[in-house]
Amino acid sequence: MGRFSSSVKRVDFLLAIGSVARYPVHGFLEAAPAIISQGSAMLLVDVYLDKSPIQGIGVFAKNHIPRGTLIWKLDPRFDRVIEVDTYESETGPVKSYLDRYSYPDRRDPAYIVFEADDARFMNHDDDPNCDVSSPEETYALRDIAPGEEMTCNYNHFFENGFDFLGDRHP
């Protein structure tokens, strides 16, 4: 059972995913324009979502963010820690959603982390402006200008190099 006193039941799991998503789990790609217009959710700095030159939707700074600023912190009220067994038992749209927006919990390999805020749209960059080396906090590696896309290095989440969860589980 690990660090948690109760296992996530399927109904609770689906409600948790649905309650934090701004759109239904099924058909989430169709809602992209609505997501872009809604702005940020729960990061510790003001951000907005917009079309990314890197890939799909990205997270952009609304204001100047000084180097060293804490920009995200794991918060169990909003970020879901899900047992790997629960993740692996899912199929279809729920599994696809988790494949895209979850990553291994570096504190305990029996779990994955689903970020329920706009941080889930942060794109990969080999030379990022955000430091995700801590599993519980993210800091600005350098000054980030207003309108600049906020990026991180996904390799911090995967021991053998970056890939989406679904790419590792056929």
Arithmetic mean of pLDDT: 73
Radius of gyration: 16 Å
Unreliable stretches (pLDDT < 50, length at least 5) are 1-41, 164-170
| Alpha-carbon distance between the two ends | 25 Å
Helix-and-strand structural type: alpha+beta
Counting DSSP E segments of at least 2 residues, the number of strands comes to 10
Put simply, the count of helices is 5
What oligomerization state is this entry in? Answer: single chain
* The CATH C-level class name: Mainly Beta
Strand order of the largest sheet: 1-2-10-7
Fraction in helix: 10-25%
CATH topology: Beta-clip-like
Largest sheet: 4 strands, mixed
Strand content: 15-25%
- Please name the CATH architecture: Beta Complex
Number of domains: 1
Write up this protein:
The longest helix is centred in the first third of the chain and has 11 residues, at 10-20. The protein is globular, with a radius of gyration of 16 Å. It has a 4-stranded mixed sheet. It has a 3-stranded antiparallel sheet with strand order 3-9-8, with no helix packed on it. It has 5 helices and 10 strands, in the order ααββββααββββββα. A hairpin with a 6-residue loop joins strand 5 and strand 6. The protein has 170 residues and is α+β, with helices and mostly antiparallel strands. It has one domain (10-158): Beta Complex (Beta-clip-like), CATH 2.170.270.
